[in-house]
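User: For a benchmark we're assembling, each entry needs the component sequences followed by a predicted structure for the full assembly. Here are entry 17's components. Please fill in the structure.
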Amino acid sequence: MRALESTDDHPLAGRRNARALQRLLLLQFRPGDSFLHRLDPWTKLLVLLTVSVMALLFSSLPALIVVFVFELLLAFTSRIGLKFLRALTLISPFLIMVIILDSFFSKVSSGQVYFSAQIGFIHPEVTTGGIFFALAMGIRLLTLAGISFLFIMTTSPDDFIRSLKNLRAPPVLTFSLGYALHSTTTLAGDTRQIMDAQRSRGLELDRGTLIKNVNKFTALFIPLTISLIKRSKNTSDAMQVRGFRQSMPQSCYKSQKFTRPDLFMVIMLAGLVITMIVVNLYATG
Amino acid sequence: MTIHDPVLEIRDLSFRYPKTHSGRSVTALHHVSMSIHPGEFTVITGSSGSGKSTLARCLNGLIPHATNGTMDGEVIVMGMNTRDYDVPDFAPHLGMVFQDPGYQMVTGDVESEIAFGLEIQNFPESFIRGKLDRIADLLRIRHLLGRTINDLSWGERQRVAIVSVLAVEPSILVMDEPFSGIDSSAMLNLTGVLGDLKKKHGTTIIIFEHRTGCISSSADRWVVMDRGTIIADGKPGTDSFNRNRQTSRSDELPYSCSAHTPAQNDHPDYHQNPSPGPALPAPVLSLRDVVYRYPGVQSTVLDGISLDFYPGEITLINGANGSGKTTLLKHCNGLLIPDQGSVLLGQDPVSQKTVAAIAQTVGLLNQHADYQLFESTIAEELAFGPRNLGKNEELIAGILKKTLLECSLDHIDPLTPPLGLSGGEKQRVALAGILAMGTPVVVLDEPTFGLDPGLKHSLTELLHRLCRSGKTVIVATHDEEFGQACGNRFIRIAAGRIESDYRKFPISAIRPIQTGESGELRGGAGPGEY
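Assistant: Structure for entry 17:
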């Protein structure tokens, strides 16, 4: 969360791997006040499901382009477009792999043949139809990953938990889920602090490969386990002191309501489904 | 129940913790009896290991319900016996703020945190929203609503913790060591808030604390504990209170707070000039125009800091919570590399070496002992650093003995697992682990956290000895009482810049004492926190 960036125990404060970590941190909630941000988390979940199902149902390139463009529009209207594109680069290794493999071992082989070989029982072949198929699979992967990224980047975990509470989900479930979500932040901070403490005592973590460093992990693992156990004990005490009980019904101070933007989104989704069906008919037709 | 009945009654309360690894069974409370009346402001004080924390846990049923051990006697809160009711039953009547407000937070943002207690009691949404609105003004935290907990400084978290506890309007507010993590301005602020609560809302307030400076004027009643019993109880200044106090081994008296806020101009013997005097030794560690910001953040944490640290001097770095103290210290051994400027170790820039290589010269102690202890015995724990630095076993055995003595740990069997020790003891093992490395520069981040005056005093003596043997000691602390007793050079940073930098004595006046001193030193090495 934003918090990570302003405290002393910033997990990126180290010298190594900072850039990689920073890219992973793209995948976190970005506070904002856009159309997408204001939607009820349940509506957003519906968007996530619809888009994913559509991307899996259709395999023609034009239909997949439609759903991907829809996703890009959503990202850019919620003013996280560039961050969204940068987050998508996280899956580029998979994307390249999928496109290359699908070009050579395509389920569809039609049109001109660019390359064909027989190596044992393997029969790689590159055709125009195959390339289109590979591109479609690439876009499908982008769409599937992208819509989850978009959900994560525009939905505050707290809002999500709150909407679960509104559905009268058991307090134990909503609380544990919320606590787990916050714990990732604290866990990252603790890990950073422990690494810093042990490096200050001369533990060399900046050099050598991961495998060489395996025996050094007890120096990190044990303090981390201890601090986790301590934290959970403290939290359980704190919850009891505040009056938390597993079975009692709870109210929620901020209820989410199905509003006009939510209705608008549902209509847009219906539109998307119809467009994709039509485009697909033309494309295969 | 009439208005004159006590809101809280403790009758002949004893508590014993189960046996620890070392086979010790610690009796934390011995036949404690007291009653607290509505609207009373009580301060319960005592050294580490006097049973304060244990007593606090007895007040809302965490003892006996959520703690292992044997309890005798009774605690009755608002007419409810803690044996008969469960911990959550006390929540509407008794609010508790823990020592570390970070541990107390159960949600992710300020609003949910405050609403949590009300949601649990199933109040309707409109009621909770109205309540949120009113209570935010009471403690002046309106500007914090809508922020996430992780964004907040320690002091802000503490205020949120108080508000979220007060939201359910408990009749009693209990705070465990509220002053240990905050600087003096936040301390005064909190004292004001507590005074308001007592006056305007008639809340009964019970504070467990050993930094008792600021509250001396507001409190109605002082209770002094020692080794699990109450040794004095009453209003400070009265004869009976003072007579009883004499027998106390703890030396914390209610003193005035303002005397300890160092205003540099008030001290004529302070040298305003940060220059170390005519005889300038070569600096061991230098920061040159260090600018640092955390990745992805616009604002700078350190904004052009230049400092030289000299051998044989204790430098105190002071500043409000979140002013950049820890960030500055992390630059000293290369854990952080400045965005602009440089950090020089003698002549070599720190950025050219790994942290582990710098550890030959600079030993840095983290705030939390728990972050570094992991070995199965104290001896192994102390040997970890020197082994990493490539020292041979024979040398290490010698270092071990000396360091244990220095840190007043020689009464504990070195084969005890450090994780089973009390809070204060762990802190000293962690410090010993750093000192065992024998680095010429020793950097300590908030070393006094959770230490009582007795232990702080022995830490002061230890640092003085280090400094006389020619080491450079750098300490970040918000504890100004400790700082004044301990340091020679005082640096105050605010918003990432140096606000003041002055010395008590010019550096040439510090005469290094040759080695050969015995390190005998005994702190209040009691049974520990619990």
